[in-house]
Amino acid sequence: MGFFTKDIKTMDDLFVHTLRDIYYAENQIVKALPDMIEKATTPGLKQGFQTHLGETKNHVKRLEQVFKMLGQEIEGVDCPAIDGIIEEADDIAGEVDDKNVLDAALIAAAQAVEHYEMTRYGTLIAWAKLLGRTDCASLLQQNLEEEKAADTKLTKLAEGQVNRKAA
Ligand SMILES: [Fe+2]
Ligand SMILES: [Fe+2]
Fold this sequence. Notes:
Layout: H1 11-39, H2 43-70, H3 80-95, H4 99-130, H5 134-166
Helix pairs in contact: 1-2, 1-3, 1-4, 2-5, 3-4, 4-5
Bound molecules: fe (ii) ion (2 copies).
């Protein structure tokens, strides 16, 4: 983004900028998940992170498809929000000793990530429809559905066993 000139002039520009934000975020999540897989103890949680890593790689691919459909260059823009969420997850994980408590902390961090993604996709889908790009909206919707499912799975894991074992 230019400092002296405002680069976002239209809704189309804002849409592409926000796509680049989530594209950057998804790529950061691909990098962060292996560490979370390694740290998780509860088998269901480890497995859940593993599955979502595969889905997240697919989210990156779907976004690349959206860029292509729009005739836009595939590139990310820095997203300090996701960097902050991931950094906080790292910090907290580094401070927890007990394995069950660590799992609870990992779930809380992962849900913050999922909710960030959900808010971005919710906005992008609404804007895509507004701009008459239902083709892009339906791809983005597929990503959103998987984020929602991942979030629900995390809630079930937390409520089912992890938080109780940690308490
Ligand atoms: Fe994602
Ligand atoms: Fe996700």
